Fold:
Amino acid sequence: MSDPITVAIVGSGPAGFYTAEALLRSGRAVAVDIVERLPTPYGLIRGGVAPDHQTTKNVTRKYEEVALDPAVRYFGNVEVGRDVSLDELRDAYDAVVLAIGSPFDRPLGIPGEDKKGVYGAAAFVGWYNAHPDFRNLDPALDVHAAAVIGVGNVAIDVARVLVKTPTEMTKADLPDYAARAIQASPLTDVYMFGRRGPNDAKFTNVELREMGELDNCVPQLDAAQLPKTVEGEASDRDRRLKEKNLATLWEFTKRRADEKPKRVHFCFYAAPVAILGGERVEALRLERTQVVAGQARGTGEFFEVPCGLVLPSIGYRGAPLEGAPFDAKAGIVANRDGRVADGLYAVGWIRRGPTGVIATNRPDGVAAAAFIAADFVHGRKPGRPQLEALLASRRVQAISFAEWKKIEAAEIAAAPPGAPRRKFATVADMLALVDES
Ligand code: NAP
Structure:
């Protein structure tokens, strides 16, 4: 048999795993190494999907099957750019696939963004998901009102996690520190601001409807902002989705503000222009907009909403990785349909930007595997032994998949009643567990 094509996939989120799966099915002999900077795999499934949406996380069972394939090896706790450079990986492997996602917040670009009380969704979601990078965010939740900017699914996640009751979170894997902070918060009102109209909102209907079914919180909406029908050009599918959202939003207009102790206010045609206050946020200043040719245009009319917390949830961006060309405007690795350079490919959000659901990443993986199968008939570079030698020479403690399973087993064993797991929130705790077992 010819030598397997050696492939390093950088990143173990959905795009990385779909690529590994597609490579295994490509009909070529492959040796696939998944290199992940955290000890824990699964990227946004673990660190992004909301802690109360556990069924969405079930897809990891499929990823685990891929990880356990004899042709696949997991190298957790190995950061490309810190422990090993991209150039070194490209030297070691026939093909390198970047599946590094979009881990950072897009900036709002308005005055006051640096005040205490402003947390972008990447950081805030990471915090309530026990992501080690954001474990110490310590958001100031001692506020009565919060402003969430953006009307996409991340914005909905952020608003919902803030207002759900402890009982509603019983089956979630919200870390204890976040649960305590949220429960202790006097928050009663969350404002969600869309710079365009209800027809342009990005959230999907299941997520929107859930906001009308919460134990302690009622949605609020000014009927004057709602059109009777879906306006403008849209495909049949898009129109049906928008019609569903519109019907749900109309339902929300019938809800009384005093029905429940907390409220989520959906506010459209409002673009943030400044975050006001001293050291801490005291209010958000917005400009009323109208939508012209699909774009929000300011009307010159301004208003302020008092709030102590501003949570921009306006989309993510990738970071440059040394050795890969970066399209700074788009916040992605510069690529042509997933091809970056000879033997270098990109998949998922770092390829096409932060849009789509988990399964949207699958075709990216299939495309990258097809490129690799077309570019290589058999392998030429050693791959795994060269990476292992590099890591050993630098005393990097790579975490194997079996070691991750020990971390996972400990998290499951420590789960509070009803919850799936109690997550480790620091790399040190994860490594200590591996070392002692
Ligand atoms: P998104 O769907 O693109 O939504 C971003 C929102 O921010 C939009 O409402 C956008 O308004 C607004 N925005 C952008 N720039 C702004 C600015 N400067 N000022 C004010 N508003 C601004 O992104 P996302 O919510 O981060 O979600 C990312 C992807 O993950 C999406 O595909 C989403 O569906 C998916 N996701 C899915 C789930 C789920 O299925 N449950 C959960 C979470 C995330 P404009 O439209 O006017 O630009």
